[in-house]
Queue: 3 jobs
Job 1
Amino acid sequence: MIRTTIAVEARKALYSTVLTTTTALLTLGITALAVVMALGARAGNEQVVAQLGPMGELEGWPLLMGIVFQIAAAAVLLGFGTALSWIFGREFMDGTISGLFALPASLQAIAFAKLVVFLLWSALIALLVTAAILVAGLALGLGFPGLFDLAALSRLFVLVIGSGLLAIPAAWAATLGRGLLPGIAVSVILVASAQFAVVAGSGAWYPIAAPTFWAMDPAAVTGWQLGLVPAVGLVFTLATVWTWRGLQLDR
């Protein structure tokens, strides 16, 4: 039954304009912004160099990857949170939630299937973004990446995957709030709180910010700190599934 439920949710996602648009925006948007900023830094644009800080002194792949890590950290988390808000919140907004009670699959199975499909989609986004940055780097004339640069590209892939896990609280919020806006609001709060943690100097211990710290400097984050990321995803997966289990028609 769960396989059938996942297949149904996957089919709905496949024909979703929202997810298709989000895929294009994240992949092309992150790549375009990174390329523009890299070109600006290469040309010696003072505003771009000042915005990049110490990173502005880098060249080649290290410069491009450093820019990508900073852009992707916020953009992917917000994009994933918005997508999850739609995946879960639209059932309430469109009034289709009542029809789910009549299906053979349980509500918790449907919620779990939605999360499985989302995580598969986030893995696809990770692959597309990483591939797009690789192509962009080659197009900029940076040459084929060396071992250090390939390691950075692999960390970008993991960073996007981790952002998918960290966005799951948006699904829970969309369920509790019975709509899109609560989930989107939580996504914005997560991004803002990560920025605050960085300024406060506690980013490595804050799960929302830890993946970015690790991507930029693996030695700056311990395994225990990075392990909090899947823990957040697991906790809010259970919370979301449990909340769906208790849904009632009059709510």
Job 2
Amino acid sequence: MTSTSASSEPATRADLEALRLEFREDMAAHRAESREDMAAHRAEFREDTLAIRQDISRLAEEMNARWTESREEMNARWAESREDMKALRSDFHEDTGELRGDMRVWVAASIGLSSAILVGTIGAIVTVAFVG
């Protein structure tokens, strides 16, 4: 039995050594494959990150362009509104001036009419007093 166990013992060591060597080779292959996978993932991640950054830059440029366009449009509208208000004020002042002139004419006419009525009334009273 000792000869059998002695003869089987070196085979077991050789098997263990072969298994250990195979395990090392498998682990080395697995590590190499993992490194390749990680390198591929990192490259893909970098590409995705670059694409996202480019999209963000493009969106920021579009937003800035829209903001500038909107600001220019609002400035034009404000300028137009200011011009409209200036024209309205000018028209209002002209109309007010015309109305004041008309009111002066009406006041003068009213004073003249009142004076004529007063003179006529006084004349009638005097006539009635002397004639009557």
Job 3
Amino acid sequence: MVVANGAFYTSEDQFAKLSNIYTDIVYTAKRQLIVHIQGNIWTKGNKFNIVNDWRYYAYPQKTYGLGGTSSLDKFANQNFKYLRLYQTVLRTIAPSLYAGIGYGFDYHWDITGTAQNPDGDSTVIASINSYDHLSKSISSGISGNLLYDNRLNSINASGGSYANIVFRQNFSGLGNNSWQSLLIDLRHYIPFPKTSENVFAFWSYNWLTLNGDPPYLDLPSTGWDTYGNTGEGYIQGRFRSKNLLFLEAEYRFKLMNNGLLGGVVFANAQTVTDWPSNQFKTIAPAVGLGARLKFNKYSRTNIAIDYGIGLGGSSGIFVNLGEVF
């Protein structure tokens, strides 16, 4: 693993927001190659916010089909390569309020392991193939973005609120088919006790398909948000469908006065619509705790190590550079 994290201010204004750039190259024990280049840049006076998410994956994974009733012992082995190019530019329209446009490009190719997979579960494979069985897929679209963010530090917020609403229109002329999605990402942070650096943090992440049929690998899914953090307690991709709702609450606290070591306790719940009924029928809760080790005192970046437990024997250790949200 090679990781680089940079944080900086573009002006000396006391209200300047912290900009950050994150890159990594990771090769996992599951033979997954992951490359990220992600940036969140604020210009002088917080006038413009420039956001990019570029990534490349060579990615073997387990996939569990569609809906909210999947189980750990029923899966198909899947392999694909993935290129993502997202770019967004927003401009301030009121204090802490921004509007802008973006472009999103998702390209999956060399998708194998679901059409003919003797090692996979037949019901999972049938579920996937009833939706699509593409060997490659392209989603390409324009987004309209509305952002409210009065946090000064997005890496480790000590207070404030964040709301990001993204409507994306994908076009059949530029991709496999035409479809529309809506993302509503809401976060709130409350210092508790008020004079301390301990924080209650709340997160609501809602990923909806408004119209059309996204390719299987572009469907809303556990752990496939921007930073891969939804659904701690469940393996990435455990639940997948056309609509996903997610809630999480955390309490973050210092264990050492100098902030070198801290802790967190959390609880979350998620639900996806069943396929093909497209109705919400099940809820998957999880709980957990974690440790925080200060990585960058200047930006207040922590190494986050969490252990989460979900239903049906689901559990896992989740590691991040920076807070989960």
